[in-house]
């Protein structure tokens, strides 16, 4: 295991196991009949993995995903997150894995990322300003930045390799990739899960502007919720107290890091710069606040 000076976990290696498949934040170990998913403290911005980690970020993401998997009640890929129940070959590193990992079933991942938008912001707002539509869905006139949409939109994207950008696709393209029946199920699940989570979050003072879900299919072809769920890395969380239509509300995610990078005119190409300690500390506070506000639990 590789930690930085702040004891942020940057890289995982487990003796006796092959190197993991690494994403921007997660390292996935193939255990044969199941997978070990480890959430590191890496942070990326503008599709660039930064050299600095954010201490405890991985634990926040993992705990929040576990909270939502339980709350949403949809069939999912989780086997256990109790490190004491992990296989023998993981016991030597179980304290490194505690609170930041889960054992999951192997499923056939669906080759689109499923995004639900309840509010018009980010790339959706930019597209609406140009064309009056989002992902090919024509919208009425009169929306402003951060407006609540009349109905929740299903706006899927392709899955890009690390360093590349996901590409927005319309519903017809989604059907072409996964088939008409799976596309219908993905849309229903995405909007249903988002609505349930957004209603809950609003009662706890947080607006979920948009979020990304990933799904797999088990052996009988039924849909399974997989990967991270409703975390600050996959969602836009706005404190309701500071929400106002017409401007970008402050968000409980890595926007603070993006803003700092913009302030130093970062060219959005690797390698990224080291983050100052105050930016790291503030980002950790933001992630912990998101977890505590949503789960009702102390971190």
Description:
This protein has helices at 57-72, 94-97, 122-131, 171-178, 180-203, 255-263, 277-295, and strands at residues 2-3, 9-11, 21-22, 26-30, 34-39, 42-45, 48-53, 78-80, 101-105, 108-109, 114-119, 133-134, 137-138, 148-154, 206-217, 223-226, 235-239. With 299 residues, the chain is α+β, with helices and mostly antiparallel strands. It folds into 2 domains: 2-106, Phosphorylase Kinase, domain 1 (2-Layer Sandwich), CATH 3.30.200.20; 109-252, ATP-grasp fold, B domain (D-amino Acid Aminotransferase, Chain A, domain 1, 2-Layer Sandwich), CATH 3.30.470. The strands form 5 sheets. Strands 10, 11, 14, 15, 16 and 17 form a 6-stranded antiparallel sheet that branches. Strand 4 and strand 5 form a beta hairpin. Helix 4 (171-178) packs across helix 5.
List keywords for this structure.
single chain; 299 residues; alpha+beta; Phosphorylase Kinase, domain 1; D-amino Acid Aminotransferase, Chain A, domain 1; 2 domains; 5-stranded antiparallel beta sheet
């Amino acid at each position: 295991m590789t930690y930085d000076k702040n004891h942020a976990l940057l890289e995982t290696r487990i003796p006796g196991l092959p190197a993991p498949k690494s994403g921007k934040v997660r390292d996935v170990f193939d255990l044969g009949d199941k997978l070990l998913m480890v959430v590191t403290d890496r942070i990326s911005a503008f599709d660039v993995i930064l050299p600095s980690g954010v201490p405890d970020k991985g634990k926040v993401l993992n705990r929040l995903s576990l909270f939502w998997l339980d709350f949403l009640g949809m069939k999912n890929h989780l086997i256990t997150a109790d490190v004491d129940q992990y296989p023998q070959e993981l016991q030597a590193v179980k304290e490194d894995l505690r609170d930041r990992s889960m054992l999951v079933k192997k499923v056939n991942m669906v080759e689109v990322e499923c995004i639900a938008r309840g509010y018009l912001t980010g790339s959706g707002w930019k597209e609406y300003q140009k064309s009056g539509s989002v992902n090919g869905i024509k919208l009425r006139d009169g929306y402003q930045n951060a407006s609540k949409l009349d109905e929740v939109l299903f706006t899927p994207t392709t899955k890009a390799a690390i360093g590349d950008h996901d590409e927005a696709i319309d519903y017809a393209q989604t059907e072409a990739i996964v088939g008409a029946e799976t596309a219908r199920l993905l849309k229903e699940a995405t909007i249903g899960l988002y609505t349930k989570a957004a209603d809950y979050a609003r009662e706890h003072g947080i607006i979920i502007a948009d979020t990304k879900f990933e799904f797999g299919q088990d052996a009988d072809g039924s849909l399974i919720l997989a990967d991270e769920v409703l975390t600050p890395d996959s969602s836009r969380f706005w404190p309701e107290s500071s929400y106002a239509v017409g401007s970008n509300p402050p968000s409980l995610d890595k926007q603070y890091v993006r803003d700092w990078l913009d302030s130093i005119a970062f060219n959005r190409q690797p390698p990224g710069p080291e983050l100052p300690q105050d930016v790291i500390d503030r980002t950790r506070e933001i992630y912990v606040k998101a977890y505590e506000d949503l789960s009702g639990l102390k971190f």
